[in-house]
Specification:
By secondary structure, the chain is of the alpha/beta class. Helices cover 44% and strands 12% of the residues.
Length: 481
């Protein structure tokens, strides 16, 4: 089947990225702030210096990890109707953006701290939107103890959607205790630990700290998740000119190196554990020093990383979907909007970003609607088309004959709806660039969803057990805090 896909690297360039990544792992190594993970890698064949916390990983370990990692698996939904089966067949599965710092108030445009109630509403909107396939908790909630933020965000999401959840693997302060609670909650939804392992109800984002460094809490939590069968998304956020070399080649090599190192950790901890190659790497904005999701170089870097993931046969998250500007709407130019959308065209299986504002610093309910409608329109470029002798239709050509037209032929009537996408005229409003005019209409849709959309409730017994798990964790923080 023919599918539109953006590629960036030639085969020899792909080979070079791989060879340079192996050279980096073998000669420079990665810094891992965890003695337990370092010792695990040492026992498996890595050259480890406990004093400097550097692990040098031989090519043999990389090859072994690639061979053991599953090439396909399913992320389960709690109703069974919204399962995500990787790899994606056509366009990528899209999720909300994640862990933003503030929520934009529709009336005042002020930046507000978010609560679990706010997150519940945002999740419900994501549940209602056809274009959203998974929920990444969109805001950082502020009405819970700091150490219990991630577990509350996961549980709030479970209660307000039937779709799969993308969670976070904890920070340097919480780590394994946080992971164990999240796994408990996931097992509660799945129906037990064995069921969770067969069809995990959530994934976890385990960010590598560029360049080539793994935080203690995250990496130890990653080991815990791998053993429980929770898919680990090993996101590299290498920023060219800041946390890696200021070239596209240097950025891609660093992102690929970090992903291979993370894969080795997952497969060493639990051979065959699901793992998702991921990168949100870009060159920095030299004016601000921040990440620039809408730069002309970003879709090229994403495409290169997608090719590397494909080379290894790994499901991947190497694309973004969301305007991610400020204020709510699409205040960006056509070129900036196109750059963001082009990141979805590289064969990535997963994308995040719906609802985010200001490079994911914040979010708004209305932006979820706007991004969703834009995505419904744009993803039509990624449909599958049959290119075959039958579809070439020479028999129809012979019937119609030279100089005539095909308008009244039954073949045309049969294939119009299959081959042609008819745009909704309302999409003109939502697809407009340098505009916030769609914001008011999006707000009306938000109000309608919150008024009318019903998310099936969890069983009372599950709700009670989940509440008890959360309450106990809030009252008894990890001993090291």
């Amino acid at each position: 089947m023919a599918k539109l896909r953006l590629k960036f690297l030639d085969k020899d360039e792909e080979d070079l990225v791989h060879s340079q990544s192996i050279r980096s792992l073998e000669t420079i190594g990665v810094k891992i702030h965890s003695d337990s993970v370092l010792n695990m890698l040492k026992d498996a064949g890595a050259v480890v210096d406990i004093k400097t916390q550097i692990a040098k990983i031989p090519e043999s370990m990389v090859k072994d990890a690639i061979s053991k990692a599953p090439k396909s698996f399913t992320i389960g939904s709690r109703d069974g109707k919204h399962d995500i089966k990787l790899p994606a067949e056509t366009w990528p599965y899209v999720s909300l953006g994640g862990v933003t710092a503030w929520l934009e108030d529709y009336k005042t445009m002020k930046h507000l701290d978010a609560t679990r109630e706010d997150l519940g509403r945002l999740t419900k909107i994501g549940d209602a939107m056809n274009a959203v396939d998974a929920i990444w908790p969109l805001v950082t909630v502020r009405d819970v103890p700091p150490h219990a933020g991630f577990v509350n965000e996961l549980w709030t999401s479970f209660k307000n959607t039937t779709k799969p959840i993308h969670g976070s693997a904890g920070s340097g302060t919480v780590g394994v205790p946080d992971a164990k609670v999240q796994i408990q909650l996931g097992a509660l939804i799945a129906g037990g630990m064995e069921q969770l392992k067969k069809k995990p109800t959530f994934t976890v984002l385990s960010c590598i700290v560029a360049p080539l460094s793994f935080e203690k809490g995250c990496v130890e939590a990653q080991v815990e998740y791998a053993k429980a069968g929770i898919p680990v998304i090993s996101m590299s956020m290498s920023l060219g000119g800041s946390t890696c070399p200021a070239t596209i080649a240097g950025t891609v090599v660093n992102a690929n190196t970090e992903n291979l190192a993370s894969l080795v950790i997952t497969q060493t901890a639990s051979p065959g554990a699901p793992h998702i190659y991921s990168s949100e790497s870009s060159l920095i904005n030299p004016r601000t020093g921040f990440i620039e999701y809408r730069s002309a170089e970003t879709p090229l870097i994403y495409a290169a990383c997608a090719q590397m993931a494909s080379r290894y046969g790994l499901p991947n998250m190497t694309g973004c979907m969301g305007i991610d500007a400020f204020p709510t709407g699409n205040p960006t130019t056509f070129g900036e909007t196109a750059a963001m959308l082009m990141t979805t065209l590289n064969g990535t299986d997963l994308c995040s970003g719906v609802g985010g504002l200001d490079e994911d610093a914040g979010c708004s309910a209305e932006q979820i609607v706007i991004d969703s409608f834009i995505w419904e329109d744009f993803r039509m470029f990624m449909r599958k088309f049959e290119i075959s002798e039958k579809q070439a239709a020479l028999d129809v050509m012979a019937e119609v004959g030279q100089g005539n037209n095909f308008l009244t032929h039954k073949h045309t009537v049969t294939n119009f709806r299959k081959e042609i996408y008819f745009r909704d005229k309302k999409m003109q409003l939502y697809g407009a660039t340098v505009s916030t005019k769609m914001r008011e209409d999006a707000h009306k849709i938000v109000e309608k969803i919150l008024r009318e959309h019903v998310v099936p409730e969890l069983d009372k017994d599950i709700l009670q057990k989940g509440a008890e798990i959360i309450k106990n964790y809030e009252k008894n923080p990890p001993a090291h805090l």
